[in-house]
Amino acid sequence: MKLKKIVGMATNKDNFTDLKGYVDFCEIYLDYVSENLQAIIVSQNENYYNFFQYGKDGDYQITRPINSNLMYNMSSFSKIGKEFLKLLKAAKKISSKNGEQRKILLDSVYTIQQSIGAALDGLPAGRSNTARKLNGDLFENFIRLIIREIGIDCRAGVVQIPVVVNGEKLFDMSYQHDLIVEEKDKVKVIGSIKTSSKDRIDKIFIDKFLYTKLTETLSHRYKYTSS
């Protein structure tokens, strides 16, 4: 398959309506890069980071950095992809001590998402903003699909937060979130799903602070971490 067709697949959100669509795309991309790259560029400072350089069909463009310690190759992922979907269904039963299964889950998520991002890096330079937006949207959807697969219903959307002054409700403020988990019509979790923390990490804590202050709920139920 030509890179142009793979990039076209990555730009069509209809190809990513379920987890199998994500796994299938990843296999197609990894199969392509296994034989068709112009070069693999190794970072001098952190040599486990690689950059894929496409050939003539990709205008010799270079992808985002790929962590080779986390990224599966085609040979590995052809087996791991099926295992990944099975493990998700049983994720609640996986022990925190089972490092092998946890690594499969984490590395599979990384590999799938980076395959999409790296494919979108094959778009013409003038469409880099489109690539970033698409990559972010598909990552948000990916994480929500994973959370649903392990048995927790979630959605993206708007939460209406009452603004109260001196004991009187003045109006509702619409608050957009990437991730909302509810139980019996009560919001239990709100969160941001981002492909990077740059310029966004503060929003996580601001969201928590504002929601807690404005609703006087959930302050003891939140735990935000970043890596």
Description:
This protein folds into 2 domains: 3-149, no CATH class; 155-215, no CATH class. It has a 3-stranded antiparallel β-sheet with strand order 1-2-3, with no helix packed on it. A 3-stranded antiparallel β-sheet has the order 4-5-6, covered by helices on one side. 44% of the residues lie in helices and 19% in strands. α1 (3-10) runs antiparallel to α2 (19-36). A hairpin with a 6-residue loop joins β1 (39-42) and β2. By secondary structure, the protein is α+β, with helices and mostly antiparallel strands. It has helices spanning 3-10, 19-36, 74-89, 99-120, 128-149, 201-215, and strands at residues 39-42, 49-53, 66-67, 155-165, 168-183, 186-191.
Name the descriptors:
227 residues, alpha+beta, 2 domains, disordered C terminus, 6 strands, 6 helices, 44% helix, globular, 3-stranded antiparallel sheet
Give me the secondary-structure category: alpha+beta
Strand order of the largest sheet: 1-2-3
Q: Could you say how many structural domains there are in total?
A: 2
How much is the radius of gyration in Å? 20 Å
Amino-to-carboxy terminus distance? 36 Å
Element string (H = helix, E = strand)? HHEEEHHHEEEH
Q: What number is the mean pLDDT? A: 85
The portion of residues forming beta strands comes to: 15-25%
Largest sheet: 3 strands, antiparallel
- The shape is globular
Q: State the share of residues found in helices, binned by percent.
A: 40-55%
